[in-house]
Write a structure and sequence with these properties.
- By secondary structure, the protein is mainly beta.
- It contains one helix and six strands.
- The protein has a six-stranded antiparallel beta barrel.
């Protein structure tokens, strides 16, 4: 959208819950104001926390910003993190193969 200010940013959030995980369209709070919603989410066994994508205003889209995700009537503190939080390439496998080839 050339020439227009972006009103929301897509961010990744991580947080700890009590046996409930996001699946999408949950409310995002900052203070006492609704500021966005989740798009998808779930539990990360690799990171041992709940994670979700969410749309938030640009001023809350910086790494380390804190918002709250509402799940089942309760708000959970969530932090904006860098995405993706997983290995997108098989670099460990590739590095191991290259190291083995040089010996």
């Amino acid at each position: 959208m050339k020439g227009k200010e972006q009103k929301v940013n897509l961010v990744m959030l991580n947080f700890q819950t009590q046996n409930v995980d996001p699946y999408g369209n949950e409310t995002i709070w900052h203070g006492n104001k609704v500021v966005g919603n989740t798009t998808s989410g779930g539990y990360s066994y690799q990171r041992n926390c709940s994670m979700c994508f969410a749309y938030v205003p640009p001023e809350l889209a910086t790494l380390g910003s804190t918002v709250y995700v509402e799940l089942m009537g309760r708000r959970y503190e969530a932090t904006v993190v860098e995405d993706p939080m997983f290995e997108t390439e098989a670099t460990r496998t590739r590095n191991a193969l290259e190291a083995a080839a040089t010996h």
